[in-house]
Design brief:
The chain is mainly beta. It is built from no helices and three strands. It has a domain at 3-21 and 28-41. It is 0% helix and 21% strand. A hairpin with a 5-residue loop joins strand 1 (3-8) and strand 2 (14-18).
Length: 70
């Protein structure tokens, strides 16, 4: 299930919700003030290292720089 980020339009409190396939049926409420006036925001994510210790967190999709795109 994906995690979505929201901001309350009433108190500006940022929060995240774990949403499943029935997410549209669930009313989203601010956990701080209880307002249902919330807006979805962009979430950030990061990638850790692989099991061989290679760190891909720099954003490079090809660590050697020689990978072809096609």
């Amino acid at each position: 299930m994906p995690i979505y980020s929201y901001v309350c339009e009433k108190c500006e409190h940022p929060f995240e919700l774990l949403e499943g396939v029935t997410a549209d049926k669930v009313q989203k409420k601010c956990p701080k003030c209880g307002s249902s006036k919330v807006r979805k925001t962009f979430s950030t994510f990061s990638m850790g290292s692989t099991s061989n210790g290679t760190d891909y967190s720099s954003g490079d999709s090809c660590p050697t720089g020689t990978c072809s795109l096609g």
